[in-house]
Amino acid sequence: MEKTAQYIQKIGNDLWLTEDERQNLKISYRVKEVLFSKSSPFQHVMILDSYDFGRMLVLDGVVQTTSIDGHIYNEMISHVPLSIHPNPQKVLIIGGGDCGVAREVCKYPNVKEIDMVEIDELVVKACKEYLPEVSGNLSDPRVNFLFIDGVKYAAEKENEYDVIIVDSSDPVGPAEQLFSKEFYVNLHRALKEDGLMVCQSQSPIFHLDVLKQSYSHLASLFPITKLYTAVVPTYPGGMWSFTIGSNKYENIHVSNFSKETKYVNQDILEGCFKLPEFLQNALIDL
Amino acid sequence: MEKTAQYIQKIGNDLWLTEDERQNLKISYRVKEVLFSKSSPFQHVMILDSYDFGRMLVLDGVVQTTSIDGHIYNEMISHVPLSIHPNPQKVLIIGGGDCGVAREVCKYPNVKEIDMVEIDELVVKACKEYLPEVSGNLSDPRVNFLFIDGVKYAAEKENEYDVIIVDSSDPVGPAEQLFSKEFYVNLHRALKEDGLMVCQSQSPIFHLDVLKQSYSHLASLFPITKLYTAVVPTYPGGMWSFTIGSNKYENIHVSNFSKETKYVNQDILEGCFKLPEFLQNALIDL
Prior knowledge:
- The structure is a homodimer.
- Chain A is α/β, with parallel strands linked by helices.
- Chain A has two domains: 4-66, Roll (Spermidine Synthase, Chain: A, domain 2), CATH 2.30.140; 70-283, Vaccinia Virus protein VP39 (Rossmann fold).
- In chain A, 29% of the residues lie in helices and 32% in strands.
- Chain A contains ten helices and 13 strands.
- In chain A, the strands form two sheets. The first copy, chain A, has a seven-stranded mixed beta sheet with strand order 9-8-7-10-11-13-12. In chain A, strands 1-2-3-4-5-6 form a six-stranded antiparallel beta sheet.
- In chain A, helix 7 links the parallel strand 10 and strand 11.
- Chain A binds chain B through residues 16, 22-30, 50-52, 68-69, 72, 205-206, 229, 231-233, 235-239, 261-265, 267-268, 270-271, 274-278, 280, and chain B through 16, 22-30, 50-52, 68-69, 72, 205-206, 229, 231-233, 235-239, 261-265, 267-268, 270-271, 274-278, 280.
- Strand 3 (25-39) of chain A pairs antiparallel with strand 3 of chain B.
């Protein structure tokens, strides 16, 4: 627990985690207990039990996912692309160490293989043991864990996947390359002729530049590019964006969504592409 | 500026506002300058210039609205009801001291009278002078400012308004009564036979109990009750809810929304009623 003290302060009798990666905004969470704290070769990994958000995965001091709202992000980045592709059989997940995306993809019986490429095995271990609300204690035999660099992995694949889901953290540290044009070029090559991909493209409020860059990269590679949003309470700005690049399929083909979910339903699948005025304007000319 | 020091801390060379009204979550905003700080008979009123959110209205140390996202809330609580009522002529706003709702309502030429009942004149004065990005420096002659208790005002009116907008702060302090059943009964009486009302009904994530209570109250009074949501980045949980109680009109009648707005458009008017699964489930049996 050597680096715990860098991130967790004791104030009176209370423990607090303060996220201060942003220069002008600090968010502090009151914490019941530090359940796990260890450094990997890539980053510092903690699982905390918090008062308002339940258990949380914290990487380098920044909250990544929580028991209270982790399902929103994981359901949205999974069920939207899987409701557009009519027959996804082979799925690649890049990142997604909390295992929540893999858990959602496993709800599709027609999916035969799920390659999950996460650079940091320690994140997966910690989430499987201490964050079952998000990871679901994943033991589905279709999931093939590969603890290697997703950027290198993608560069070696061709015409192999129906759907690729890029579940990255913010574009700093280990995830920086997951927002580069070269990476998207490789993903495009790794997809089958009728394949599609989705990536998280950050907050439309605070990272509109990143969003526009991701959208532009995908728009230059795919005939179909679509942006959708969801509300993720623990991410700055509340509103979060996802961008789809697709070779062939464009619309939600599901007419009666019936997976067991807490956030996604038929209304959300259809409504999530309806963008506010400032965001529609931001995409013009990209 | 007697109470400023209670809310604003100097850390090194920087000023910070820390919202700590919640027991387990603190949000701190780096502040450039305190532009206004004064106590009214009802609350402490500040206008701050912040780094990430521009100018902000802060009541009793809690951020109410900001230059960067205040328009989202104000557009959503105004244009949705005014796009459902086919001919709103007389509108009552209760609360709304930042004047942003009145500003949006003024965009409707068929509206002849806007009674704005705000208990705290100091909020209006401060916002008109220091927060023009939100208040719009309102000078429309159709707006009739009444600096009196909205609860008492509503109790004396009958069959008078086409649309009532309740733009309250949180259900603590001066706004507590704006969430009571008795208040809604009075608003129902103050509406014309085909009138409708809307209130902000807090965060579906953190205040689901308040949301359900507001919804139940309105459902017991009106034949039509509808919930919709928007993303308001500076409110806890990001997702915010609004509840409509309507005597007659149910659906958006506008087919080509064209007011000058930054958030609301035709897509948002139609999409905002599409609720996530947990929220649809929460409203069953209310």
